[in-house]
């Protein structure tokens, strides 16, 4: 697991070069899992969130199949600090390539 501190929450630190450097994903080199420490949930829609750091840096985060789960409940309603565990993935939408966090679990 790779820990991403609050000061590293910028596109300058989490960018295509970092993700590309960790590829290719195959046997013996699985997709890396990242720990984002203490983000706030800024916006939510169907457990598609925007997580924001104390320095106002944000990342799109998705949590699949979690709407009526304990994790989904926490993402939608938790007002205290929490830690998010996930993997980074590119999203291609409207001919624009951005990175997003796929949420795997939470640490309360």
The gist of it:
The chain has helices spanning 16-22, 70-77; strands at 2-4, 34-36, 40-45, 48-52, 58-62, 83-93, 96-107. By secondary structure, it is mainly β.
Describe this structure in words.
There is one protein chain. This protein has 108 residues and is mainly β. The chain has a single domain (2-107), classed as OB fold (Dihydrolipoamide Acetyltransferase, E2P). The protein contains two helices and seven strands, in the order βαββββαββ. The chain has helices at 16-22, 70-77, and strands at 2-4, 34-36, 40-45, 48-52, 58-62, 83-93, 96-107. Strands 1-2-6-7-5-4-3 form a seven-stranded mixed β-sheet, covered by helices on one side. A hairpin with a 5-residue loop joins β4 and β5. The longest helix has 8 residues, at 70-77. The radius of gyration is 14 Å and the shape is globular. It starts with a strand and ends with a strand. The mean pLDDT is 79.
Note the overall shape.
globular
Count of DSSP helices?
Answer: 2
The CATH architecture classification is Beta Barrel
How many discrete structural domains?
A: 1
Could you give a short account of the major beta sheet? Answer: 7 strands, mixed
CATH topology, by name, is OB fold (Dihydrolipoamide Acetyltransferase, E2P)
Any idea what the radius of gyration is? 14 Å
Mean pLDDT value: 79
Instruction: Say how many strands there are.
Output: 7
Q: Level of helix content?
A: 10-25%
Q: What is the topology, as strand order, of the major beta sheet?
A: 1-2-6-7-5-4-3
Q: Low-confidence runs (pLDDT<50, min 5 residues)?
A: none
Q: Give helix and strand order, one letter per element, not per position.
A: EHEEEEHEE
Strand content: 35-45%
Distance between the termini: 17 Å
* Classification by helices and strands: mainly beta
| CATH class type | Mainly Beta
């Amino acid at each position: 697991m790779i820990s991403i501190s609050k000061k590293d929450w910028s596109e300058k630190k989490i960018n295509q070069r970092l993700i590309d450097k960790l590829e290719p994903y195959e046997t013996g080199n699985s997709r890396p899992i990242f720990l984002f420490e203490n983000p706030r949930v800024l916006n939510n829609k169907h457990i598609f969130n925007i997580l924001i750091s104390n320095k106002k840096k944000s990342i799109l985060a998705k949590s699949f199949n979690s709407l009526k789960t304990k994790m989904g409940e926490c993402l939608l309603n938790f007002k205290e600090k929490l830690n998010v565990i996930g993997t980074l993935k590119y999203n291609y939408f409207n001919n624009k390539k951005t990175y997003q966090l796929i949420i795997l679990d939470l640490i309360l």
